[in-house]
Structures are given as structure tokens and as C-alpha cells.
């Protein structure tokens, strides 16, 4: 019982801002109802206040710590009907359990109030602090305390409990009639689709039958004892969890697909060799078992002390050319001159056609004793289990695999996680009491100082400030008020080092170290970081060199960009408190590849390829196992990711494994890129499987080369289409990116810094995910100058502008009467526009509505991939490729040409980015009409229909007048966040993600 009740959740309802008046008198009397895990709490009512201040702390019991991440905390605001006409809904806030933090890490977070329905009129924000506390009472004193509480509580506290119950019933009797009906209706719609859980994944989680058993057993024991009836009734009120409920929640709600339903089942022969039993132990050497199946011969580990191996071997059935299996137990005996011989104690043979089948979730096959056939030493036994299974077998990951080279760690399937990244903001304010110069050296009249901040390998500096010789505080205490922004990765570096340096003599005035553990975390701009003074330490002769005034905080309201902006896969804020519930689940089945080209030689005689695939979405990286020496490998591995934004990109790359073998110097080789594909989630229909084969094309110094094809199955599952539609109206990035934006140059520096950190951390994993793999997946060279990319972006712009040229030629053709019927129709249309101007906009939107419906039949049914023709890989010349693969600085002589050449390339890289951005804006407009994003085009279709009806009713002159006044409104009446049309436009797909 102590384990169940050891965690409590605390919700501090602080205040609300800018509520919608709902009492008929221009104000509202608001109170909050908080629901969590079948428990309900209510705050007091604040009389006629649109900015109420509660500051009430509500306590909830967490029944199951393991399933807390799947629970939803819901806060509903209502207008008290005692102070108004009726109990009106003021808004709600839903927080996923995965966003709860431990006590000590909480902070005040303002959540925007959500609507209960599409037609609700809601505005304002709700300030909350949500945290939990783990309480572990002493084991010896727990039972006496409980018994004493059971004896003392009934007689001592009947009145307070009755009074509380009476107060609650008095308040709730009137509320339940008007509130609980709409509340329950809303809950019925929302409860069946709980948010996915972040921790368990379908491919990682064990069978889902055990967690409910662990939850139910304490409850059954509790009900048998008959203690704590109040807590028991609260637990029983929870919805019944079926055997697959944790798995369904992690998969995004009511999804019923299997773990391996996107890939083909690959048959594997599994052989588990457990141990041997000998009649006579005459042999003292190490003993092992040897398996012979077809042309494969494998040995278990040698055991000298005992005869237990307990090893599993998996053999690909399609790669075998035999139907028999022989298992022998052998002893290695040493002779003179360090020579050894092998002595066989017996053999067991199996007919593979008689092997039983096993498909999870069937229980594992029990091993059995088999007698070894031998004339020399009869009577010996070996314990073996042999079955035919698939890659979904639990033993597959730890088994010796025939197609992956055995037990090599570098060839196994692995899942990697990018480190959690934060922005660290250091605000340098001023310095005081600086000890400039030393006693032996004369002081400089006007020294120039700057402050340098260092976090790990990152170094940023402030501007220079001159220190005058006068006695005024402004001259003797230099002031900067500059921000230095770093990228910090968990686990953090131990110290942030601040150094004050003198430019005139090149010496260090002093430095200070700030422990990263002492730096506070901030999640928005509503709370300012506290300023702190630090003493500056000089050399040994000068322990005190002055002091410095700074502000330091970890910014949790930003999303740390570590990918190219046009292929980003995650837009969540760094702070856990700002986490939102997933809106869907992305499932990817990596089936196989065909017609791969050899990338290296084997034994110096023939070409070969050891291929594997890496898929990246959000912070999760997956790497399939390496299939050795095959040009048509079949992986058939399936993975899943939680989706928090539909306008993100999945990146999949294929590589040749060069790290599992050491070179002559004893160092691992490098993995060779085979090709890469990208899939934008917004171009996928929900709950539909896309099974396609994509070409793998890679740019090499010798030109573009097609390396083969890869077969991928993709499914984007979402239980609520309304949530997907609402995502198009939300800002792409968190709020801090718009309230306190970072400059473009600063963003580029921080992005490449984050890329280097992610690359370094993943390279330190075991086995390592190579630096060349991470850089290729993250497009770390997207800023490098390339004549090919510049041509591609230029012709994208030209292609967009050609539509305007076509329209101009069409108008000129009408003007010159090239086609008289068309010219006459235009004259009639012109007369209609002049005589009936109010029909212009309805006609235009109705025409767009009809055209979009007609063109929806011709939209692509296959997800878009990178286009070699669009990337101009076929028309690139050798000089341009040489220039593209030339590094910084260039190796071309002479020195003057190198400097000018690098300068030209840097400027051309900026122009290249500008051309791409311009082209992307125009392509987003085209995406509305070509149905690249079905949901965005569907929204626009509905908008066109509604706009045509609205503009039919609203006079055009009135619309122009109202729109003009709205456009030129005072900044006081404008919002800091982007508008809904701008958010919608920025989420439209462009062709940037199809450029190689």
C-alpha cells in the first residue's frame, strides 16, 4: 500500500488573465474545477474579476506512478451562476502527465485557455504550477501509524469531514445540474483517445499483459483487507484497464494495429543451447557446442568451469540451403607446443522440416534433454530448444544472427536519443572595482575590455568597451548589457567560465566560474532572471581582481534548432512544463533494399555492400541491423514515433557499415552514404499505409550516382482530425521565438553548434553512430556554396515567375484578339464586374472552389521524395562538382585567389539561401492548389466556400473599409503572436525538402 500512495500531485491554481466576460454585466465571477485520475477539486469563486487571483494549492493522489505519464490533468473554468445569469464555460486547460515535474523544478506557466467546441467564445490565460512529491515513509513505522490513524480518525474528526461534505454538497448541488452534463459530454468525447505515452514504445516495450497485473494486485489486496475505504473507492472509480491498455495509449489511442504489420514476417530458425550433462568428466579442457546448418558453422562460448552456455542462435531461413541441423559437443584438448585438438563427445541431428513454429505472444519453448550419439562416450546429454520463429521473437535481439555476422555490436539494431538541448542566456551587465595592470608594469591610459563566456568548447565575446582614467562611475565601471547565448546539453558541463580580458595588453583581468547546477531555468519572458555578482579571480599574485554583474538562466521556452529549418522534425520547447500531448503516431516499416551497388571490395577480389538504414524523427534515431554482403538486403523492422506536429519531416538514410571491421592501424573505418529520402507528414493521409520503393541517389565528386532502391512502409495515425486541423492555426515554434526572437545570424551559429553537440554525443554511444552519418542526416552542409544548388533554386524562382509571364501573354493575346470568342467573353466579364462589383469576390472564390475540387482527382497518391531532376544532378559539370566538394578554405592556388574565392562563395551561399526562401514562399501558395498537403487544401476549400457565401452577403465596400481599419489598427490592439493566416501559410509545404 505504501508504494501506491507514495506520490502526490500538487496543482497550484495561481491566477487567470483577460477572461471573456460571461455574466451579462461585462465581467465574470470565475472558479476552477480540477480533475485528475477520477478525483475532483474546486477553487473559490472570485467575484466579478476578469483577472482573478486564487493562489490555491490542490492536492491529488497518484494511484500508479508508472501510468502517471498517461493521465490527463484537466482544469475547467466556469462563471459562477450565483453572481450571474447562468454557469457559463470560460475555458479549459489540459496537461499531459508526461509534462509533470518533480518538486523543486516547478515554475509558473501560463496556459492559453482552450475551447470546448468550435463555436465557443474563449480567450485568456491560466497560470498554474504543477509538480509532484514522492513520499517514502519508514517501513517499520508505517503500520503503527496506519493503525493509529484508523483508530483515531473516526471518533475525532467526524464534524470537520461532515462540514466539508456539507459545504461541497451545497455548492455542487446547484453546479452539477448545469455543469456536469456538458462536462460529461465533453469527457465522453475526449476520454476514449488518451494521449500517447512517451516512455514505452511499441518496438521496445515488453508484452502489455504484465503492467496491469502489477497495478491490480495491490488493489485486490487492499479490498480484501477492507482498509482505507475512501482511497479504495477513488481507485475503483478509475476506468478499467484492459490487458493492452498501456500499449494502446503509447500507440496513440484506439489503434489496433500489430507491432510488425507494416513489414513482412521473416522466418528464422532459433536454436537455444542451454547446457550439457556428461556421464564421465574425463576431459579437463574447455567445452563448447558446435552448430552445423548448411554451410554455416557456429560455436558457442567455451566453458572450462561448467557446462552451461545458454546461447541463442538465429539463422535466416531464406539464406539456408540445407534442411538438417547438427549440434555437437566438443572439448578442446591442448598438446605440446601450444597445439590443440578437438574431441567430439557426440552429435544430435534435427530435421528442420519437423521444427515446431512459435509466434509471440506464445510462451517460450521449453528446452529438452537430447542424448548425444557417440560410440566412444555414450550416455551424454545436451539441453536444446529448436523452433521456427520470426523477427518479432523476443530472443531475436540478443541472439547470434546469421545475416548480421553473429554477435558483433556494430551490426545490431539500436535506438539512439539525441541529448536534451537548452539555450543558456548570459547577460553581461557591468563590472566594478577592476584591478587593471600589475605593480611592476605601468597602467594603460585607456584600456579596452571585453567579457568572454565559455561553456565547454563554445566561446562567445561581448563588444569592446574603453575604460577612462576619470573618477566617474561610468568610466571606471564599464557597462555592456549584452546577451551571450550558448547551447547547453544534458548532462550539462560542470562550469560556465566568465573571463574579463584586456585587448591593449592581451592579458586576462580575471575570471569567474559559475556552477551549471546553480543556474535557474526560465520557461517564458514573464519572469526575469535574477542578477548576481561574482568575484573575479586573477593570477596567484592577485586573488581578487574585481567583480562582475551578470544574469544567467537556462531558456526552456525555446526549441533548440539542430536541423535545417526546411526538414525539421521536432518543434517542442525544451521545458517539460510546456509539453503538449501527442496528436498522432508515426509508424515506419523498413522492409528492404534492391539493386544496391558495391561500395567496397571483399578480400580484394569482389565488390560487396554491408547495408543498414537510419531513420530520424524528433530526438529519436533508429538504426536497423546490418545485413552483410548482400545487394538485396531485407530488414523488415518496424519503429514508431509520437507526433506532436503534422508539418514535420521524416528522414531516412541508407549507409554501408565500415565500422565493424578495423583497418590496418587498428581504427574503425567510416560508413559510406548510399542515399537518403525524406517524407513530409503533412502530405500523408491519416490511418493509411503507404508502401513504396524510393530511389537512392547520392552526390559524389564524380557526379550523381543511383545506388539502388529502398522499400519503405509509412503510416501516420491520428484519432482526431480536429486536432490536426487546429495545428495549422498554431504557431510553428514556441512562443519565445516570437516574443524574444533570435537574429538570423545568431540562429545559424546556434544551429550549427547544436549539430556539433548532437554529433559528438551520438559518436560517444556504444556502439557509436558515426559522425558522418549524423551530419548527413542533419544536413549539416546545407549552408555550403554549391553551383548546382544555386541553379536549382534559381530555376525554382524562374518557374514560379513564369506563371506571371504566362498570365501576361494571355492578357496580351486577349488584347490582340488572337482568339475572338475568349476576347468577347472577357468583355462580358468586364461589363459584369463594372455593373455588379459585389459579385467579384464570390465569383473568384467560387471559381477557386470548383477548380480545387476538380484538381483533387489528380493529386499524387504517393508521398513525395527528393527529386534528382529538381536538384539538377544530371546537368552538373565536373568543375562545379569540384567546387561543391571543395572545403573551406579552398585548396586552389594562389593565396589571393583563395581569399577572393572564399569570400565569393560565402556571399553566394547567402544568395543561395535567399533564392530558396523566395521560391519556398511562392511554392507554398501553389501547394494550396496542387493538394500536396491534403488537409491544408481541404481547409482552403472550406474557406473558399464560406468566403464566397460571406462576400455574397457582405457589401464589398464595407469589407474594404473594415479590413483597412483593422489592418491599420493601433499596436496596442495587436497580438505579439503571428496571426492565424500567417501560421497557416508558414505550415504549407514547399519543394525545399525534395532538394538533394
TrEMBL record:
The keyword Heme does not apply. The chain crosses the membrane at residues 824-854, 939-968. InterPro entries: C2_dom (IPR000008), C2_domain_sf (IPR035892), C2D_MCTP_PRT_plant (IPR047255), MCTP_C (IPR013583), QUIRKY-like (IPR047259). It comes from Tripterygium wilfordii (Thunder God vine). SUPFAM superfamilies: C2 domain (Calcium/lipid-binding domain, CaLB). Residues 1-110, 250-370, 403-534, 567-694 form the C2 domain. Residues 140-253 are annotated as: Disordered. This is C2 domain-containing protein. Keywords: Calcium, Membrane, Repeat, Transmembrane, Transmembrane helix. Belongs to the MCTP family. It is found in: Membrane. Pfam families: C2, PRT_C. One of its GO terms (cellular component) is membrane. Residues 140-204 have a biased composition (Basic and acidic residues). It is a multi-pass membrane protein.
